[in-house]
Write a structure and sequence with these properties.
The complex is a heterodimer.
Chain A lengths: L4 H31 L3 H22 L4 H26 L3 H25 L6 H6 L19 H5 L3 H19 L1 H9 L1 H6 L4 H42 L3 H29 L8 H19 L5 H29 L7 H11 L5 H13 L3 E4 L2 E4 L1 H23 L8 H8 L5 H11 L28
Antiparallel strand pairs in A: 1-2
Helix pairs in contact in A: 1-2, 1-7, 1-10, 1-11, 2-3, 2-4, 2-10, 3-4, 3-10, 7-10, 8-10, 10-11, 10-12, 11-12, 13-15, 13-16, 16-17, 16-18
Chain B lengths: L24 E10 L2 E11 L4 E5 L6 H9 L6 E6 L11 E4 L13 H6 L3 H4 L7 H13 L15 H14 L4 E5 L7 H16 L3 E5 L3 H7 L2 E5 L3 E6 H4 L2 H8 L4 H15 L2
Helix pairs in contact in B: 4-5, 5-6
The chains are: A mainly alpha, B alpha/beta.
């Protein structure tokens, strides 16, 4: 497949521009919907603008930009207001009322559209869903230098011009009222008491979403609008805990989805030997979904992999600590150094459901830290291991004291709880426990609470009961 | 030309004999209803200046409703509220608010400092950025509640007590003269409880008035100067010595007035089926 420069400038560039602007606008506004947990509102408005467009068309027989935008904006506001009304009067949750309102409005739009189609009108339902990106063309540019000429800009495709205006208006308003949108999303009651009426901001935002939806409609269709309102902000949220960064990342992901999606749709099939280009809007939505999946799986902070790694590290460190504490208890009761198998079975019994991998990893890390040694398949604490084991057992027994003395638990009920808590005890918690225990030197089962290690204390001897 | 004389503007509450001119908050004959069902009836109240006031009553007594109605967050079915002798919306800058902690989404991607800075938004105004000076002021407020070290933390990483302190710091950042707080002591640790009490006392010493919905009857006497006992109506109000009595508590907690409940129900049904 060959691509010439003038073909690229006349067909691909305007389509790319339209898609990128649409994606960026939707993503920008979508941030605030996702943060308010109102993502479905974007869906609702994207669908509900259809009857607005069709009604304008039936009344004014025009597809020119301004009347259509006004009609769609009115439909968008109507959706917002109806949703509120249905929620209040119908006493249903807000997602249910959104679902009711937008599906009925959309259906109404489709019926009206068919009516219009019967009158041989140039509007169809497919265009509503997928858009007509391939129809966006720009005949003026023939080379890069064409962009230096005024004539070229005069010929700019209507869709691109509209989308550019809507993008810059949205960007301007979001920048100007960023603080107001943030406080209304986070704490609408406080916003209202401070004089920033949350409902006003909400309707303003919804009007902008409706504007973005209708401007994007013709070029990219409603599916992409919905995807771009939700996916890039949600993807960005997985990667950052800062709202400004979330907004910037969402814009980046929107642009990547648009450009990569277009590239794959236009040139992907040719690359694989296919003949027909794919739906560009569809491909962009797929890319946005793929980015989101990637973020859910691989985000360094909130991702599935990161959480798994964290969990398995935690499991290994629990085994490690359990192992030290167990060996210490063997020493306490003057038993011979236990065999590896015996220790394994003890730990398994203490922590049912523990994975073999965690078990092995815990053993490895204890050996590697030099806290235990293995001789003839028997395990022994090193002096460093004994020091640490004392701290763990001390925490355990302090917890047992606390659970019995302060919480009134029965002494035979507290071991398991203390075993869990001993791994999660922070320094301040430990101090609090010490305070509560006071001068107590024995746990509820009359075993000694090991003394607090002093800094630079010489190696502790084997314990005696 | 109008035949009827224009109605005179109603006198300010502060000028009425039954209200006090010094009161930071005057409530006159206020009734508040949800879906036509009254939850507060005919409330009259004057908050004494420079005091810590506990609003006490059982669940469903209308404590939060009272606060929200004073703040203009829910409409009054009837009656009037004046704050420093003015309509509440005219004195927004003088009124601080601490909502219930559960009323917001603590997963929101902002830091503790950014939440506190929200307290300054009223003075910053529409469309302006948060300046360095306002950020510094917010940081000082965080410091006053012992949370300066957590300024950059995302709010979901804070404990419940720490989140409550952030809310308190945000109220301080508002630099108001009258504060409404909705259960600031709910579910907090001992350290936070002490920090909140310290801040409340400092506020009072600075001449401010704090009205707190409070649920722990054990600590009312220790933490507060005045009490407003509420159960769908004002049962009693006054200083701890005079109003926080066994008798009044019995009246407040000894069950609803069945007749009031029935009347509210009847009104709600009449409203739903006109």
């Amino acid at each position: 497949m060959n691509i010439t420069l003038d073909l690229f400038l006349q067909v691909d560039l305007p389509a790319l521009l339209a898609a990128t602007l649409a994606a960026a606008t939707c993503a920008l506004l979508g941030n605030f919907l996702v943060l308010r947990r109102l993502s479905l509102m974007g869906d609702a408005i994207a669908h509900a603008v259809l009857p607005g467009i069709v009604v304008v068309f039936l009344i004014a027989s025009t597809r020119s930009t301004l009347p259509v935008i006004l009609g769609a904006a009115a439909a968008g506001l109507l959706t917002t207001i109806l949703t509120e009304l249905v929620r209040k009067i119908g006493r249903v949750e807000s997602s249910a009322s959104m679902g009711v309102v937008f599906s009925i409005l959309f259906a109404l739009g489709v019926v009206l559209l068919e009516q219009a189609a019967a009158d041989h009108v140039d509007l169809d339902a497919d265009c509503v869903l997928y858009g007509q990106l391939e129809d966006v063309s720009w005949f003026a540019p023939v080379a890069w230098t064409s962009f230096l000429e005024l004539e070229t800009w005069r010929d700019i495709p209507r869709e691109v011009a509209t989308l550019a205006i809507v993008f810059f208006v949205s960007a301007f308003l979001v920048t100007l009222f960023f603080k107001e949108l943030t406080i209304a999303a986070f704490d609408s009651a406080l916003a209202t008491t401070l004089g920033f009426r949350a409902s006003l901001l909400h309707y303003g935002l919804m009007a902008l979403v409706a504007l973005a939806a209708v401007a994007s409609f013709e070029a990219v269709g409603s599916i992409l609008v919905i995807a771009m309102i939700i996916c890039p902000p949600a993807t960005a949220r997985m990667l950052t805990d800062r709202i400004t960064m979330q907004v910037w990342l969402s814009l980046l992901f929107a642009v990547i989805s648009a450009v990569l999606g277009y590239g794959l749709a236009a040139f992907g099939p040719g690359f694989f030997g296919g003949e027909h280009a794919l739906s560009a809007a569809g491909m962009m939505t797929v890319v946005a979904g793929a980015l989101m999946t990637l973020a859910i799986v691989a985000s360094p902070s909130h991702g599935v992999i990161a959480r798994r790694v964290h969990q398995s590290r935690l499991a290994a460190s629990v085994v490690h600590e359990d192992l030290l504490a167990l060996l210490y208890r063997f020493e306490e009761t003057q038993q011979a150094n236990p065999t590896v198998d015996l220790v394994h079975s003890h730990i398994r019994r203490g922590a049912p459901g523990i994975s073999e991998r965690a078990l092995r990893a815990g053993f490895r890390s204890a050996l590697k830290a030099g806290e235990i040694t293995k001789n003839n398949n028997r395990l022994e604490l090193s002096s460093a291991g004994r020091a640490r084991a004392m701290e763990i057992v001390r925490t355990h027994r302090l917890w047992e004291r606390f659970l019995v003395d302060e919480m009134g638990s029965r002494p035979d009920h507290v071991h398991r709880t203390a075993t869990t808590l001993e791994h999660l005890t922070t320094q301040p918690m430990e101090r609090e426990l010490e305070m509560q225990a006071g001068a107590a030197s024995r746990d509820p089962h009359d075993r000694p609470i090991p003394p607090k290690p002093a800094p630079n204390e010489p190696t502790p001897d084997k314990p005696t009961l | 030309m109008s035949i009827h004389p224009l109605p005179e503007a109603p006198p300010r509450l502060a000028d009425l004999p039954e209200h006090s001119a010094q009161s930071p908050l005057s409530i006159h004959d206020m009734t508040v209803a949800y879906r036509h069902k009254p939850v507060l009836w005919d409330v009259d109240y004057d908050a004494p200046p420079q005091s810590l006031i506990a609003v006490v009553g059982p669940n469903g007594a209308g404590k939060s409703t009272l606060i929200k109605a004073c703040l203009g967050l829910i409409p009054l079915a009837s009656g009037r509220v004046e704050i420093f002798g003015q309509l509440p919306r005219r004195v927004r800058r003088d009124v601080g608010y601490v909502p219930q902690r559960e009323s917001v989404d603590w997963d929101f991607p902002i830091s503790a400092l950014e939440v506190v800075a929200m307290g300054r938004y009223g003075m910053i105004g529409w469309g302006r950025r948060v300046s360095r000076a306002h950020k510094d002021a917010a940081l000082q407020c965080l410091d006053r509640v012992g949370m300066a070290d957590y300024a950059k933390r995302q709010i979901s990483q804070l404990s419940g007590g720490q989140q409550q302190r952030v809310f308190l710091a945000r109220a301080l950042a508002q630099e108001a003269r009258l504060y409404f707080m909705d259960e600031p002591f709910a579910g907090v640790d001992a350290a936070t409880e002490r920090a909140i009490v310290d801040v409340l006392r400092t506020l009072r010493d600075e001449g401010k008035t704090v009205i707190c919905v409070h649920h722990d009857l054990q600590t009312v006497q220790e933490y507060f100067d005045h009490v407003l006992l509420l159960n769908m109506r004002v049962v009693a109000a006054g200083s701890i010595d005079t109003a926080f009595t066994h008798d009044n508590l019995q009246k407040t907690y000894g069950g609803r007035l069945t007749l009031l409940d029935q009347a509210a129900q009847a009104l709600a049904q009449a409203g739903a089926r006109p």
